[in-house]
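Example 5.3 — ATP synthase subunit c
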Amino acid sequence: MEGTLNLIGAGLVVIGAGLGLGKIGGSAMDAIARQPEAAGKIQTAMIIIAALLEGLAFAAIILGKS
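Solution (predicted C-alpha coordinates):
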Protein backbone atom coordinates (compact mmCIF):
# COMPACT_ATOMS: atom_id res chain seq x y z
CA MET A 1 0.00 0.00 0.00
CA GLU A 2 2.82 2.40 0.83
CA GLY A 3 4.42 1.92 -2.61
CA THR A 4 1.14 2.79 -4.30
CA LEU A 5 0.79 5.99 -2.29
CA ASN A 6 4.36 6.96 -3.17
CA LEU A 7 3.61 6.51 -6.87
CA ILE A 8 0.43 8.59 -6.58
CA GLY A 9 2.41 11.30 -4.79
CA ALA A 10 5.12 11.26 -7.46
CA GLY A 11 2.46 11.53 -10.16
CA LEU A 12 0.89 14.52 -8.44
CA VAL A 13 4.28 16.20 -8.22
CA VAL A 14 4.88 15.68 -11.93
CA ILE A 15 1.44 17.03 -12.81
CA GLY A 16 1.94 20.07 -10.58
CA ALA A 17 5.37 20.78 -12.04
CA GLY A 18 4.01 20.49 -15.57
CA LEU A 19 1.19 22.90 -14.82
CA GLY A 20 3.60 25.32 -13.18
CA LEU A 21 6.03 25.24 -16.09
CA GLY A 22 3.18 25.79 -18.54
CA LYS A 23 1.94 28.77 -16.56
CA ILE A 24 5.45 30.24 -16.37
CA GLY A 25 6.02 29.81 -20.11
CA GLY A 26 2.63 31.22 -21.08
CA SER A 27 2.97 34.23 -18.81
CA ALA A 28 6.47 34.93 -20.10
CA MET A 29 5.27 34.82 -23.71
CA ASP A 30 2.43 37.23 -22.88
CA ALA A 31 4.89 39.59 -21.18
CA ILE A 32 7.31 39.44 -24.13
CA ALA A 33 4.46 40.13 -26.54
CA ARG A 34 3.55 43.25 -24.54
CA GLN A 35 7.13 44.50 -24.11
CA PRO A 36 9.47 43.03 -26.70
CA GLU A 37 12.34 45.25 -25.54
CA ALA A 38 12.34 43.46 -22.15
CA ALA A 39 12.55 39.97 -23.67
CA GLY A 40 16.04 39.25 -22.32
CA LYS A 41 15.17 40.05 -18.72
CA ILE A 42 11.88 38.18 -18.89
CA GLN A 43 13.49 35.13 -20.45
CA THR A 44 16.27 35.07 -17.84
CA ALA A 45 13.76 35.24 -14.99
CA MET A 46 11.64 32.54 -16.63
CA ILE A 47 14.58 30.16 -16.95
CA ILE A 48 15.65 30.70 -13.33
CA ILE A 49 12.14 30.10 -12.00
CA ALA A 50 11.68 27.02 -14.21
CA ALA A 51 14.98 25.56 -13.00
CA LEU A 52 14.00 26.10 -9.36
CA LEU A 53 10.60 24.50 -9.97
CA GLU A 54 12.14 21.47 -11.65
CA GLY A 55 14.65 21.10 -8.82
CA LEU A 56 11.83 21.16 -6.30
CA ALA A 57 9.90 18.55 -8.31
CA PHE A 58 12.95 16.26 -8.51
CA ALA A 59 13.53 16.60 -4.78
CA ALA A 60 9.90 15.74 -4.04
CA ILE A 61 10.03 12.68 -6.29
CA ILE A 62 13.27 11.46 -4.72
CA LEU A 63 11.93 11.98 -1.20
CA GLY A 64 8.67 10.26 -2.14
CA LYS A 65 10.45 7.13 -3.35
CA SER A 66 12.32 6.61 -0.09
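Remark. The two ends are 14 Å apart (CA to CA).
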